[in-house]
Amino acid sequence: MKYVIAIIQPDRLQEVMDELTKEEIHLVTVSNVLGRGRQKGISEVYRSHKEAGSLLKKVKLEIAVNEEYVQPTVDAISRAAHTGQIGDGKVFVVDLSKCVRIRTGETGNEAIG
Length: 113
Known about the structure:
The protein is of the alpha+beta class. The chain has three helices and six strands.
């Protein structure tokens, strides 16, 4: 079991969701978040002074998948979120040691679905 976390541009969310649906990946949690990467946000000039970069709006997707869905999930997100511009985002894949479906008490691969 793996936990896939992706940080993407907000305007790419629908494309990413469409690609995930094509791969039959439906269980997704989406959050609006703020953050900055290497570019340290966007520098702005205010009263002729350059202000430090601020936090940028991003979207965070969290997806728990069984092993056979890891690569299709990463590929779908990468395809749909890619613009070739700085700030396209990142995908993280981490081990998921336990999953419990609260309604039924199922654990492990069965709990993910």
